[in-house]
């Protein structure tokens, strides 16, 4: 049974067209003509919904944005040039110097560096906590705290957050909650669990074959009555709420980040991403089944495997109750040392060694010598990076072939 059957019709019908070009049209233009000065004025003040300039969006990306907003039940989305661009857009559109972020759980190395190094230079401080340290999280919330950030699945520590519990804390204190849902599109719908913003690296599972760099941020609607974004904590965006109403967070992202930082995607990459999106429900369903098959077999064979489907994982119960549609393509193997990890990667016949994840091929990477090579011992320990850790992203290959290959490589 396909866990994501509802999306199969939605994506192929939404991306295609019943008249003219069936495949999404690529608007390969940097500029767009307005026709007359009145239309130009309307485009710039937002009353006319036509393309302004490719830096702030183009029709091809606009179609992708519509599909992604529908996927997550958002009021709108903004496509970006990469996953890090999506995170940067969402963060920088809401925060300013002196503000604070709370980051909960596992964290991709690029995001950790962005929070710990780059944002610090601009006067934005981040406090990092274990995924289950919710009492400690509440204790450090101040009037300057504007964002709680988490990944739907810790990358690469494979720890699972209680998203609803974190959302309850965010709502109780009137703080925005942002969820990186890159490894669990369709599986988890963070906006329905209480998140305000969802970010993706669409390069990964959504595009699905390493052909197109991209990202996206999906936003919930601003409520008509009381809303956390109408409080003094978010006074800097009230003018957007007054003008744009429910669509205010999208407008904030466009005006305060996309326009000024220029993180727009190419039309061609948005086109390739839509082609990937059409098959995402089919690919993801197979990948989730394969991951569970592979990790149980490798565990039985004696490998030190980490995945929440395994009985000895600390979040096994949470996996069963809150992550019924899987946790995406990732698991890890700890070979005990860098030398053993290198030996394993050299021996495997099916794995592609790369920093990407969510591909149609099975990918793997030694973490400590690559993405986390610049991190100190304490940072690696907090993020779950051990000397022999290998991150694996399962693809579309036959899982039995993967099992045989991995066991042979580990001998």
UniProtKB/TrEMBL annotation:
It comes from the Bacteria. Its cofactor is pyridoxal 5'-phosphate. Transmembrane segments: none annotated. The keyword Transferase applies. InterPro entries: Cys/Met-Metab_PyrdxlP-dep_enz, OAc-hSer/O-AcSer_sulfhydrylase, PyrdxlP-dep_Trfase, PyrdxlP-dep_Trfase_major, PyrdxlP-dep_Trfase_small. It holds the Pfam family Cys_Met_Meta_PP. One of its GO terms (molecular function) is transaminase activity. The keyword Transferase applies. Keywords: Aminotransferase, Pyridoxal phosphate, Transferase. SUPFAM superfamilies: PLP-dependent transferases (SSF53383). PANTHER family: HOMOCYSTEINE/CYSTEINE SYNTHASE, HOMOCYSTEINE_CYSTEINE SYNTHASE. Belongs to the trans-sulfuration enzymes family. This is Aminotransferase class I/II-fold pyridoxal phosphate-dependent enzyme.
